[in-house]
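Re: that backbone. Tokens:
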């Protein structure tokens, strides 16, 4: 079960947009991440590679944890809001729930739940539609 201090450090890293550092610091080597019902990505190195690829496509990222955080033993549910500005100035705003399974102070499994329609980038602000 993660301590409150550990959860707060994790949230702080994500909110500072250091998503890759959060994976390095808080995910177990064999951890998995799953988007909705897609097949999970397995292994911290694969999780890092995927996250860094997403981050490299963005010119800016804004991450916010919407509280409260729900904790029940080793199970944690976080509500996130993200705003990605991509290199072509289009914008993706995403709200999701992340269900995490922790073993001690490390995440071993995480599944995200969100409406995939949110993934469609919107034109840059002020662009003709």
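Recovered sequence:
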């Amino acid at each position: 079960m993660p301590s409150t201090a550990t959860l707060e450090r994790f949230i702080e890293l994500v909110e500072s947009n250091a998503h890759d550092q959060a994976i390095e610091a808080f995910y177990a080597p064999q951890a998995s991440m799953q988007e909705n019902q897609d097949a999970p990505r397995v292994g911290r190195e694969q999780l890092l590679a995927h996250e860094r690829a997403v981050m490299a496509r963005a010119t800016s990222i804004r991450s916010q944890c919407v509280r409260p955080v729900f904790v029940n033993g080793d199970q944690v549910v976080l509500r996130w809001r993200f705003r990605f500005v991509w290199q072509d100035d289009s914008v993706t705003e995403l709200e999701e729930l992340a269900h995490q399974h922790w073993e001690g102070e490390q995440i071993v499994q995480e599944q995200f739940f969100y409406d995939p329609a949110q993934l469609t980038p919107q034109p840059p602000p002020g662009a003709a539609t």
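The CA atoms of residues 63 and 82 lie 5 Å apart. The helical segments are 4-15, 19-26, 44-57.
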